[in-house]
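Much of what follows relies on a compact textual record of a protein's fold. Here is one such record, which you should read through line by line:
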Amino acid sequence: MDKSHEQQADELEKEAASLEKNSDRVGDMIKDTREEWDSNKSSNQAPGAAGREEAAPGGLGDEDEDENVAEDSGGPA
């Protein structure tokens, strides 16, 4: 009976080591992805990654078109 407990403990230790290794790998992937995203945000090669203001060629102007609604009528200005 002691042997089965030792075997189970060994299996659980291997599983824990595997999970830790996978956790480290995923953490590295997240770090790499974040660095790539930050790099793409500042590059003209990936315009979709830029912020809204940076992506607007002429700027956003004073108002966004989506917000161009008259306050009195509730309809478009």
